[in-house]
Design goal:
The strands form four sheets. This protein has an eight-stranded mixed β-sheet, sandwiched between helices. It is of the alpha/beta class. Helix 3 packs parallel to helix 4, helix 9 packs across helix 14 and helix 12 crosses helix 14. The longest helix has 26 residues. Bound molecules: ligand BES, manganese (II) ion (MN) and zinc ion (ZN). Zinc ion binds next to strand 9.
């Protein structure tokens, strides 16, 4: 999709579709009413028929007399003066979905100019573009019949004559970059496990680096990981024919050579059968999404490169396939992690933490400013938060607060769970330094407790995205979360 800024149009602007907001009680938004003056009140007449409720997200195509636009899409915006960020997102989503069902090839959106109670014009512009990209996303890579290309090719976002064009054009660029990052993450997530293997993730990351000068990718194979002592990570791929990979994507944006990087670590289990602690069959196909943390790292690195942020960022992906076989790790096996800590693998289905812990030790070498890991780690996070909210756990309250704030700003929600000392003893083992499970209760917390044993040397936060990374049911598919949160976090950092 192509995006551009446009000065608020008059009715003389020719477009396939003009998108305008309508408040409840038949009141036109400022942009709609200015437009309607040039149309001799035709839109007001239509609204007065009572067919337009003005309810948030209600849409109606109309064809006013004398308009240079082929069609006008009226979008309900709720009570005037009461529109907030959440409802804005909802109405933009509804508008784009309606528009995509039409035949329009281009559209002019006046919605970013709607007054929001809790956000500015830049935010509204970014969100509009991001939402457009997300609604326009289609997956057909593994269908023999490709979906027809969308007719909508370009979207213009209007701004008032006195608006700061430079600021808004940056906002537009941000929305497009986040949109691209999310699409990349969704594509990787949606690909089946027999296509998206650890090697596939590695070559995707390598390809990405060939597209952007600022990105460099390095891939470690099993032999190299063995040399580093990554016995925990390798214990997960032991039962699989697919070779595990540790993928390192470096972004250099800071002009200061020695500027320490911000590090993202993604869980990249390309299929999680549970291993010898085999999962039940129902819904197991969804374990192809167990690499969505990794996908969000790839998507975020792409967005960062698109934006040309002036910081250094390193994305690390710990990728393996978790399979049962004669060579697979068994419950009770004890492995030695790169940190030197020994781990009793009481459940081979708690494999995410086993690959992450070695990646988290590996990144110590970068002396990172912060490390955020992103993982579809526990079913308990799904039980707690459903598909709306990712779990956040961190011993660094300043970092946690920053992420909580950004999540509210971006509407890419996270909520914090405690990572208190009192939970640590649940991981006690009679035979090793630590067990890889903490029993049936507080699963999200004990998983984070496990990781915390490997993250003492830097500021760290953990995001459990098991509930938010993909949707089940009819809308089954990857969501591209938490790319918006991660991009915004990085955008706010300094070199
Ligand atoms: N990938 C799963 C977590 C998961 C389960 C995500 C369901 C989304 C939906 C993870 O590897 C796992 O199996 N976790 C176990 C841990 C348990 C054995 C301690 C879980 O949550 O059941
Ligand atoms: Mn598992
Ligand atoms: Zn898993």
């Amino acid at each position: 999709m192509k995006y551009a800024l446009l000065n608020t149009p008059s009715a003389s602007k020719t477009t396939d579709c003009l998108v305008i907001g309508v408040w409840t009680k038949g009141k036109l938004s400022a942009q709609a009413s200015a437009l309607d003056e040039t149309l001799g009140g035709d839109i007001a007449r239509i609204v007065n028929t009572g067919d337009v409720s003005g309810k948030v997200g209600d849409t109606l195509f109309v064809h006013p007399q004398g308009s240079a636009a082929k069609r006008v899409l009226l979008v309900g915006c709720g009570d005037e003066g009461a529109l907030d960020a959440r409802n804005y997102r909802k109405l933009v989503n509804a508008a784009v979905k309606a528009l995509l069902k039409s035949n329009a090839r281009d559209a002019v959106f006046t919605l970013a100019e709607l007054p929001l109670k809790d956000r500015d014009l830049s935010w509204a512009t970014t969100q509009l573009v991001q939402e457009c990209d997300n609604c326009a996303y289609q997956y057909d890579q593994t269908k023999s019949k490709k979906k027809p290309a969308l007719s909508l090719k370009s979207v213009a976002v209007t701004m008032a004559a006195n608006a700061n064009r430079k600021l808004l054009s940056e906002a537009l660029k941000l929305g497009a970059a986040v949109g691209k990052g999310m699409s990349t993450a969704r594509d990787l997530g949606n690909l089946p496990g027999n296509v998206c293997t650890p090697s596939y993730l590695a070559s995707t990351a390598t390809d990405l680096a060939s597209q952007y000068k600022s990105l460099h990718t390095k891939v470690l194979n099993e032999k190299q990981m063995e040399k580093l002592g990554m016995g925990s990570l390798l214990s997960v791929s032991a039962g699989s024919k697919e070779e595990a990979k540790l993928i390192v994507i470096e972004y250099k944006g800071s002009s200061k050579v020695s500027s320490k990087p911000y590090v993202l670590v993604g869980k990249g289990i390309t299929f999680d059968t549970g291993g010898i602690s085999l999962k039940p069959g129902a819904g197991m196909d969804e374990m192809k999404f167990d690499m969505c943390g990794a996908a969000s790292v790839v998507g975020t690195m792409k967005a960062v490169a698109e934006l040309g942020l002036k910081i250094n960022v390193i994305g690390v992906i710990a990728s393996a396939e978790n399979m049962p076989s004669g060579k697979a790790t068994k419950p009770g096996d004890i492995v030695t992690s790169m940190s030197g800590q020994t781990i009793e693998v009481l459940n081979t289905d708690a494999e995410g933490r086993l690959v992450l812990c070695d990646a988290l030790t590996y990144v110590e070498r970068f002396k990172p400013k912060s490390v955020i890991d992103i993982a579809t780690l526990t079913g308990a996070a799904v039980a707690t938060f459903g598909d709306q909210t990712s779990a956040l756990l961190s011993p660094d309250q300043a970092l946690a607060d920053e992420l909580l704030g950004i999540s509210q700003d971006t509407l890419d929600f996270v909520w914090q769970l405690p990572l208190w000392e009192e939970y640590q003893s649940l991981l006690d083992s009679n035979f090793a330094d630590i067990a890889n499970i903490g029993g049936p209760r507080a699963g999200t917390i004990t998983a984070a407790c496990f990781l915390s044993r490997f993250t003492k040397k830097y500021s760290w936060a953990h995001l459990d995205i098991a509930g938010t990374a993909w949707l089940s049911g009819a809308a089954k598919g990857a969501t591209g979360r938490p790319v918006p949160l991660l991009v915004e976090y990085l955008r706010r950092q300094k070199a």
